[in-house]
């Protein structure tokens, strides 16, 4: 079964004086958490074939750091609709970019990411903290069939739980 790894961007830096929310960088805590999550993904054998990210600096950097720390070879695509878009935009972005990937990591924002997990799993209430990661197995053989209740929550983890381990 295909798997969708849904990861919220790591903790970002506030008060940087940047003119755009999309330019906000990660904080030092966020950098550590993104790396920790990348190592975790490798440790549990859930290495993605493809990474799809919001264009926001904090989401893109989260994906890049996780990719590097996890030592993956996954290509990354930027999906503009992941920033400021809703559930339909994310589903369309995965369907349009997923191609033949068996496991896709997506990085983006709240509240859409919690809504996505709930939608795919038929109503699970999952809060996605910064750098939080959910793994949803998806029934079907194509990403274009993502819809209500098409998936099953396999696991959900936040970086604070992994501090003693990684």
Commentary on this structure:
This protein has a single domain (3-162), classed as Phosphoglycerate mutase-like (Rossmann fold). It is built from 5 helices and 6 strands. The chain has helices spanning 28-43, 57-70, 87-97, 112-120, 159-162, and strands at residues 3-8, 50-53, 76-78, 103-108, 133-138, 151-157. Strands 3-2-4-1-5-6 form a 6-stranded mixed β-sheet, sandwiched between helices. Helix 1 packs across helix 2 (57-70). It starts with a strand and ends with a helix. The model has no long low-confidence stretch (mean pLDDT 92).
Briefly summarize what is shown.
The chain is an alpha/beta fold and 166 residues long.
Q: Please identify, by name, the CATH architecture.
A: 3-Layer(aba) Sandwich
- What gross morphology would you assign? globular
Uncertain runs with pLDDT below 50, 5 residues or more?
none
Report the end-to-end length measured between terminal Cα atoms: 28 Å
Whole-number tally of structural domains: 1
CATH topology: Rossmann fold
**Helix/sheet category:** alpha/beta
Radius of gyration: 14 Å
Q: Based on DSSP secondary structure assignment, what is the total number of beta strands?
A: 6
- CATH class division: Alpha Beta
Tell me the strand order in the biggest sheet: 3-2-4-1-5-6
Please report which band the strand proportion falls in: under 5%, 5-15%, 15-25%, 25-35%, 35-45% or over 45%.
Answer: 15-25%
Please count the helical segments.
Answer: 5
Write the layout of secondary structure elements.
Blueprint: E1 3-8, H1 28-43, E2 50-53, H2 57-70, E3 76-78, H3 87-97, E4 103-108, H4 112-120, E5 133-138, E6 151-157, H5 159-162
Parallel strand pairs: 1-4, 2-3, 2-4
Antiparallel strand pairs: 1-5, 5-6
